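Inverse folding, one chain.
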């Protein structure tokens, strides 16, 4: 058991700190609102008045803060962590942060001999309380490995994903996808309900389809990640017809379909490239072109990752 510092006791932070304390760790805490620390203090946590005091008392500090500017202020502002940390200490930033801010802070802390790792989490307050969180960690791999057992107390899926800033990039990709999908789901469900299907019946029905039976990102495995679109599971020409029929139904019912029409436009452009008999996901190559990247992961590497995930 070690002495841990914790800065930021919002809905996520307070539950993570409580979990660490419940595992027997001595926790030193501070936050913008002292009232959020009441239960922790009652259970033996030590309250201090500034991040600098947290850092002076601990060699391992967690931050769970609401925005990049607050992270910078806590880390390097007056009475910030940087003023109290000794060489050999480590900071894990659990916040959803800007990769450029993370990289800047990592350089500042590294110059003082301190490891700064971005480690944003996903799973909400309930996951924070139970330890059922995903955690994406960017920064020094040795520091991650050294503290992996501690991170496992917080998150059952703590993963090192690359150098400083990589954890934040993974979190932003995840969250942006989540909220974009919310827009798509709202759009297609309002279409289905207005067309006459009861909402719960529609929900139960679509969960039985191919998409409904897979984890959100698993669809990337088949074609997108390996960059293989020429042995189609379902041809682009047929998929475009399906989306066209859906948008036509929406027009009949006066249901706005911004996302659906955008998807139709992408697929139509892919058809104009002569890709109609390739897999329906081939339209994703258009975005690769715009972004200036080419994604082609070896099948063996994908299979090894999947095997590791299920072991």
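Residues assigned per position:
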């Amino acid at each position: 058991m070690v002495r841990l510092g914790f800065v930021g006791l919002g809905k996520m932070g307070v539950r993570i700190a409580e979990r660490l304390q419940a595992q027997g760790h001595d926790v030193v805490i501070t936050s913008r609102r002292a009232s959020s620390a009441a239960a922790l203090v009652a259970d033996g946590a030590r309250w201090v008045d500034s991040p600098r005091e947290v850092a002076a008392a601990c060699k391992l500090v967690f931050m769970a803060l609401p925005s990049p500017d607050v992270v910078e202020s806590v880390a390097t502002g007056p009475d910030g962590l940087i003023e109290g940390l000794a060489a050999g200490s480590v900071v894990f930033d659990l916040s959803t942060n800007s990769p450029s801010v993370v990289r800047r802070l990592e350089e500042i802390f590294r110059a003082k001999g301190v490891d700064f790792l971005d480690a944003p989490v996903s799973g909400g307050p309930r996951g924070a309380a139970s330890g059922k969180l995903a955690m994406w960690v960017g920064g020094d791999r040795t520091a991650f490995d050294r503290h992996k057992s501690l991170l496992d107390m917080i998150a059952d899926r703590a993963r090192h994903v690359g150098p400083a800033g990589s954890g934040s990039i993974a979190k932003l990709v995840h969250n942006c996808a989540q909220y974009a999908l919310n827009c798509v789901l709202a759009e297609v469900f309002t279409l289905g309900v207005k067309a006459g299907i009861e909402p719960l019946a529609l929900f139960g029905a679509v969960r039985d389809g191919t998409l409904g039976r897979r984890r959100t990102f698993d669809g990337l495995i088949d074609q997108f990640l390996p960059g293989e679109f020429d042995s189609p599971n379902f041809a682009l020409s047929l998929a475009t017809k399906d989306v066209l029929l859906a948008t036509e139904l929406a027009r009949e019912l006066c249901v706005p379909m911004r996302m659906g029409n955008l998807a139709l436009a992408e697929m139509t452009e892919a058809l104009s490239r002569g890709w109609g008999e390739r897999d329906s996901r081939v339209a994703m190559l258009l975005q690769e072109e715009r972004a200036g990247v080419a994604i082609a992961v070896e099948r063996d590497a994908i299979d090894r990752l999947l095997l590791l995930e299920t072991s």
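The CA atoms of residues 107 and 116 lie 8 Å apart. Residues 214-310 form a domain with the N-(1-d-carboxylethyl)-l-norvaline Dehydrogenase; domain 2 fold (CATH 1.10.1040.10).
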